[in-house]
Amino acid sequence: MSTTSKPKHIGRNISRIRELKGMKQEALAIAIGLSQQTVSNIEASETVDEDKLVEIAKALGVTKEVIENFSEESVFNFFNNFYDNSANNGAQGSGNTNNSCTFNPLDKVVELYERLVQAEKDKVEYLEKLLKGK
Question: Between the N and C ends of the chain, which has fewer C-beta atoms within 10 Å?
Answer without folding.
Answer: N
